[in-house]
Amino acid sequence: MTAILVAAGAFLMTLIGGYVAQRTGDRRHLVLGLAAGLMLGVVAFDLLPEAMRAAPDEIHGVPQALLMFAVGFLVIHIVERAVAIHRGHEGEYAEHTHGHRHSHHGPQAQGIGLTAASALVGHSLMDGFAIGAAFQAGSTVGTVVAIAVVAHDFADGFNTYTITRLYGNNRRRALTLLGADALAPVTGAAITLLFTIPEQLLGLYLGFFAGFLLYLATSDILPEAHSPHPSRTTLLCTLAGVAFMWLVIGLAS
């Protein structure tokens, strides 16, 4: 049940992210910088070590967990390329510097926005699986994964609303997708209560999710944090996020 409570926290954080997307000023880059640091810390200090312990067997000289790490990174890269999420981000950046030159309207553009936002809902469903799977691996793993996922879900909610609106969809559609994005981690965590994941499979999954998180942090969250405001303060927030995860894991162990 702890996993469900944490997923409920992710639910609230997603909604907060969507709310901030409507109300935020120029401070959001600091929050996103911190979120990216948390994600980098959990990947390096917890997910990968735990995955290596659970799935150490090698395939052609490389541990299975690390292979899944690479697969996770590449899968989300391919998915994001396919649904043009980054085109959405570029348009978002452009709004700060070039007016609305890159804003998109019309049914086809709206479809791209809905597809991109739906992919982010899929991300959140995987977040829920990660929370449930991590708590099965142990409370320490669960706690640090929860911190990273909850931090990430702020950005996820923010991006879901922003991308949906960027491509010309109305506010009601954006709020509907935001609601689906918020419910997704709760659903994913609840599903994991129905079965216990074998340790080997858990290791492979954690490796995959580590690659998934690393991609989001480096390809989505950090560029988004630094593009409007490439400031030293944003960088310090990212470093603080990494240091915080190191502190948390050190205390927990």
Topology:
Elements: H1 2-23, H2 28-54, E1 58-59, E2 62-63, H3 64-83, H4 85-97, H5 107-137, H6 139-166, H7 171-192, H8 199-226, H9 232-252
Antiparallel strand pairs: 1-2
Helix pairs in contact: 1-5, 1-6, 1-7, 2-3, 2-6, 2-8, 2-9, 3-8, 5-6, 5-7, 5-8, 6-7
Query: Which strands sit side by side, in order, in the main sheet?
Result: 1-2
Q: Termini, distance in Å?
A: 22 Å
Strand coverage percent? under 5%
- Radius of gyration based on Cα positions: 18 Å
Largest sheet: 2 strands, antiparallel
Shape: globular
Features:
single chain; globular; 253 residues; 2 strands; mainly alpha; 2% strand
Provide a descriptive summary of the structure in words.
- By secondary structure, the protein is mainly α.
- It is 84% helix and 2% strand.
- It contains 9 helices and 2 strands.
- The chain has helices spanning 2-23, 28-54, 64-83, 85-97, 107-137, 139-166, 171-192, 199-226, 232-252; strands at 58-59, 62-63.
- Strands 1-2 form a two-stranded antiparallel ribbon.
- Strand 1 and strand 2 (62-63) form a beta hairpin.
- The longest helix is centred in the middle third of the chain and has 31 residues, at 107-137.
- The radius of gyration is 18 Å and the shape is globular.
- It starts with a helix and ends with a helix.
- Mean pLDDT is 77; it is low at 93-104.
